[in-house]
Amino acid sequence: MTYILLVVGFALLIKGADFFVDGSSNIARLLRVPSILIGLTIVSFGTSSPEATVSIIAAVEGTAGVSLGNVVGSNMFNLTLVVGIAAIIFPLKVESATIRKEIPFTLLATTVLYVLISDVFLQDFDGNFITRSDGIILLLFLVIFMSYVFEVAMKSRKSNADEVVPQDIKWGKNIIFTILGLAGIILGGELVVRNGTEIAYSWGMSETLVGLTIIAVGTSLPELVTSIVAAMKKESEIALGNIVGSNIFNILFVLGATSVITPLPVEGKVFFDIKAMMVLTIMLLIFSRTKYKVGKSEGYVLVLAYVIYLIYIIIRN
Length: 317
Fold this sequence. Notes:
By secondary structure, the chain is mainly α. The chain is 82% helix and 3% strand.
């Protein structure tokens, strides 16, 4: 039964992503805003909901250490395998604003997180934690980011006020498609994580390894499937916006909200992972500057980077 539910979960993920991308891209046209903004907000927040759910539940149940590993593992997966596979399917077009502002903001969020967890080095504490005050700082950065997105959306609406939207694109239908798609993504992701974890334990995998691999990858499946579907539909702005937005949302909202509930302990191993996340974000920024797209060859490099990272964490743990 576990294997059947795993297959059902994947089916819900794929069909949900199909509905979600169609609905959200049409909503962008109805709102007269760039698809990248929908990717950075509605799509990325929706596909990050599994990370938020897993991390917040873990904090409430007293296993807060899972939260940081889940977010870092998911972001690494997004930056490498998700971007890589989407770019291999269809080269990802990158807007100049994404290069100048959104990807650098992802790097800023990662750097802020690294500084906040360095309690032993910076403040000579006995241990490293993401405290409640750290969580408030992360949430304030999220408010700054959302203010920027809202400002860009308003400017875009004004400049595209005269744009004609095809009559067959209706609000009601696309809102329903988006909601149904999101529901399928969340339910499918939950089924995949729960049953995939159960199968992994039955194979004798350790709890730490399951957290870094199955749970992190499982909660990132919505981003993977949504970005692949978006790339196949040539909605590359949604594909890239989803990934960039998800990583920002994971750090600033998921870790911010979770640490406000309860301080998160930080293991020494995580410092390497966050440094790697910074390097990969810089790599994505460099790739994006080459002809304003992430091409197939660059996609293969990112996929290879994930394989190397996965081998490393398996050996490390």
